[in-house]
Structures are given as C-alpha cells and as structure tokens.
Design a protein that fits this description.
Beta-Lactamase; single chain; 9 helices; three-stranded antiparallel beta sheet; Arc Repressor Mutant, subunit A; alpha+beta
Length: 247
C-alpha cells in the first residue's frame, strides 16, 4: 500500500498548469526522499505511465495513462447519455457547457462544448477545479450524503481566488443548504474574475448525485434575465439525463 500511495503522490503532482516536472520539483511536491522519487519515476517511465524528456530532464504523464483515461471516458455511459443535452444547451445559450464528476475533493471536467463567442469561459476536458467555488463543483457537493460531504469539507484547503470566493467551511455549508433547496448552484465570479456560472446535479437510478453540468460565460453576458432562462434550461436538461440513467 505504501508503494501505491507513493506512485499516486507522484502522478498527482502533474496538472494542466504543470504538465512537466523535474526530479527536484517532483521531490518537493511529494515530500518523498529524492532517491525514492527517482526510483519510482524511472520505473513508471519504463512502462509508459510516465514519459521522460532526457534533453531537459523532465517527466510528464505517459501514453499509457492517456490510453487508460481515454478508455474510461469512452466507455462512460454518462457521457453518451448527456452529450445530446449538452449540445442543446450549447446551441441555445452559445456559452461554454461543462460536465464534471467528483474527483477527491475536486471536480474534473469529462465532457463539454466551448462557446461560439470570442470572449468565453475556457473549456478543458480533464481539468480539475475546486469543488467549493465553482458551480459545477458545488452542485455535486451539495447533494452528497452528509457523511461524505463532511469528509470532503474537512480536506479542503480554502484558497481565495477572487474577492467573492467562499473561504471558510461555515459559510460554504450555508451555501450548500441553499443549493439543495433551490436545485442549482451559482458561481458569481468566485473562481475567475468576470466569469459567472450556473450548475445543476445529475442523479443515477438510486437518487445519488453522479455528476453535474454547468453553463459558464462572461458576466457582461450572464445578466439576470439570461441566468433565469439558463437555470430553467439546465434543470430541465439534467432531469432528462437523470431520468435516462434511472431506466
């Protein structure tokens, strides 16, 4: 188990912001001894889980993880069921549409379509985002069983991204209670300045939240009137997806 935990620590060090890391950077990020990191990284490189660029002495995620990740996403029933609704939302709103799933104490985008506008909320499939200050994350967190929600809340390291970011557990729990009552979550420039989002949960046949979808756009276009329309469209869409999962 210790070996597996060390491998996961190394793999978790990589992100879209830092796709390539030196041995020293991996050592600093994991807190593991340098010889241990080197031994594991070289072993992972041999089986293509990591890839090493000898010219700059940097590691990056290897093709094997891409293959496994692609297989997972391709076989995920949820994506196939949700995509027609995502297309409809994209066509009607012309804004960025994301679908995300719980990933530890974060949320990972697994499907979506970008906006048709030049000024838009960027979409990256595979990107992990904070669960506590994004509509796509809060829409999942609010509907988790109380015990699971509490476990996640205790692991969050609150970071202030903007002046609107909720940075404490007490206020976040109040927000989550409100989300449960109204059925949708808002991100009012909480993660990115100038970006507003509305998100809603998707449930499986057991009534468990399994994902969420959000509509994101610049605040200058996400006016109150548009938001009201988008809330209704979004909640109708996630209900249809949930109904399909329930069959």
């Amino acid at each position: 188990m210790q070996g597996i935990e060390r491998i996961i620590k190394i793999l978790d060090s990589f992100s879209l912001d830092e796709p390539e890391l030196t041995l020293k950077e991996l050592t600093n990020k994991t807190g593991l001894p340098k010889p241990t990191v080197y031994r594991i990284a070289e072993a992972l490189n041999k089986v293509n889980i990591l890839s090493k660029d000898d010219n700059v002495s940097k590691y990056r995620i290897g093709v094997k993880l891409f293959e496994l990740g692609s297989l997972y996403l391709e076989t995920l029933e949820l994506r196939k069921l949700a995509f027609p609704e995502i297309e409809k939302l994209s066509k009607y709103t012309e804004e960025s549409i994301h679908m995300g799933v719980l990933d530890g104490n974060e949320v990972t985008s697994i499907e979506g379509l970008g906006s048709t506008h030049n000024l838009q909320a960027k979409l990256w499939i595979g990107k992990r985002s904070p669960i506590y200050c994004t509509s796509i994350g809060k829409a999942i967190l609010a509907f988790l069983p109380e015990k699971e929600q509490e476990e996640i809340l205790t692991t969050i390291e609150f970071k202030r991204y903007t002046k609107n970011t909720i940075t404490d557990k007490k206020n976040l729990k109040k927000e989550l209670e409100s989300i449960r009552r109204q059925g949708f979550a808002l991100d009012n420039e909480e993660h990115d300045e100038g970006i507003m989002c509305v998100g809603a949960p998707i449930f499986n046949n057991k009534g468990e939240v399994v994902a969420s979808i959000s509509i994101s756009g610049p605040k200058i276009r996400m006016k109150e009137q548009e938001l009201e329309k988008y809330k209704k469209l979004l909640m109708d869409s996630v209900k249809r997806i949930s109904d399909k999962l329930g069959k």
